[in-house]
Design goal:
Elements (H helix, E strand, L loop, with lengths): L24 H8 L7 H9 L9 E4 L4 H12 L4 E7 L5 H14 L2 E6 L2 H14 L6 H18 L3 E3 L4 H4 L13 H11 L12 H9 L4 E3 L9 H12 L12 H15 L4 H10 L5 H9 L5 H15 L3 H9 L12 H17 L1
Helix pairs in contact: 3-4, 3-10, 5-8, 9-16, 11-14
The structure holds zinc ion.
Zinc ion binds next to helix 1.
């Protein structure tokens, strides 16, 4: 298995390419497309200039994980008046619950908690397991995106700040995920393998999102791209100042994501998502390649954590060893074996140059 000379990406990404020096396309892309504009204050000026017209400056989706928590910390010190949004899908880790409470207490920010309809959500997840597709995180991500945009629209707020950032997330692998905004695909998979009608679950499509961003004047600011963002520093600062608790690996504040990334992806799909997380940290100088290789040799889970999360996963989804084993042995399918929004995606690509005129 060929591995990059700079980061730890390897051929478990089927689309990876290497140059003559053995450097992969992810490293090249990370450096070529790194946001270079460090004008944080200019972005903040954009956000607060509409302050007189509304109570809140912006909306921030918080998970209780490092990136969104640190952005809440930053926003608090920048004196932004933030409306927090948190999706409660019933899978939050104890640390995430504690962190969300702590952020509210320390900042005094208001919170809108979005509750997913658990039976329907469970039905979607089971349908995804049955379908054998890789995008197991797409339904949750869509619910988060939908929730944020509904709050933005309901409160008449024009700005979203997001903890997404290039320094720790700038290595993305297309084959390891599926675009969460493709609601047509989510509905098609659920229709085929689900058993409950989706009455309460709200899903926001690609065109609706693009409409809000392009024509309704909603803006997204990834503020962590405009500071020298360092994940370890963020964890230390949050723990020291707010008594914030770390949930372990990236995205592990949610027990569903933790089990999917820590167990289902490596055993069923043959890739380890830590590879892309570590590679971004290597590109941003926050980890060495040697440290990443040592970490990757260790299992993502301790046996004890794994057993606890597996029991939780089974309980939540009404599975047992036999049913889960059955799902894990089904053939792997591609998302495009079900209906997709491919025409909308193409339309959006054509519209991309037009967006600037409407911003
Ligand atoms: Zn690389």
């Amino acid at each position: 298995m060929k591995i990059c000379k700079i980061c730890v990406m390897d051929e478990t990404d089927p689309d990876i390419t290497f140059d003559e020096n053995g450097v992969c396309n992810h490293c090249q892309n990370w450096h070529a497309n790194r946001p270079r504009d460090m004008g944080l204050l200019r972005k903040i000026t954009h956000i607060v200039k509409e302050r007189a017209t509304g109570e809140y400056d912006c909306v921030l989706g918080i998970s209780g994980g490092t990136d969104s928590s640190y952005l809440a910390y930053l926003a608090y010190w920048l004196n932004l008046n933030v409306l927090l949004v948190h999706l409660n899908d019933g899978w939050n880790s104890d640390e995430a619950k504690w962190n969300v409470k702590t952020i509210i207490k320390k900042t005094g920010y208001d919170l809108v908690e979005i509750q997913v309809d658990e039976p329907e959500f469970r039905d979607i997840v089971r349908a995804y397991l049955h379908a054998g597709v890789v995008g197991l995180e797409a339904p949750t991500d869509n619910c988060i995106m939908t929730g944020i945009h509904r709050v933005v629209s309901g409160f008449g707020i024009n700005n979203i700040i997001s903890g997404s950032n290039w320094a720790t997330e700038g290595v993305g692998v297309r084959a390891w995920a599926y675009p969460p905004a493709d609601t047509k695909n989510i509905r098609a998979i659920h229709e085929r393998f689900g058993s409950l009608p989706l009455k309460e679950t709200k899903l926001m499509g690609l065109l609706q999102k693009r409409w809000a961003l392009t024509f309704r004047g909603v803006r997204e600011f990834r503020l962590l791209n405009y500071i020298d963002y360092n994940r370890s520093d963020a964890i230390r600062i949050l723990a020291q100042n707010w008594g914030w608790k770390e949930s372990g690996r990236k995205h592990c504040e949610n027990r569903y994501t933790r089990f999917v990334e820590g167990y289902i992806y490596p055993t069923r799909f043959g890739f380890d998502k830590r590879r892309s997380h570590f590679s971004a940290l290597i590109c941003s100088g926050q980890m060495t390649r040697e440290e990443a290789l040592i970490e990757l040799k260790k299992p993502a889970y301790t046996q004890e954590e794994f057993e606890a999360d597996k029991a939780f996963f089974f309980e939540k989804l009404g599975l047992d060893e036999f049913k889960f084993g059955h799902f894990m042995a089904l053939p792997i399918r591609q998302h495009n074996e079900f209906s997709t929004h491919k025409w909308s995606l193409r339309l959006l690509r054509i519209m991309r140059p037009l967006r600037r005129f409407f911003r």
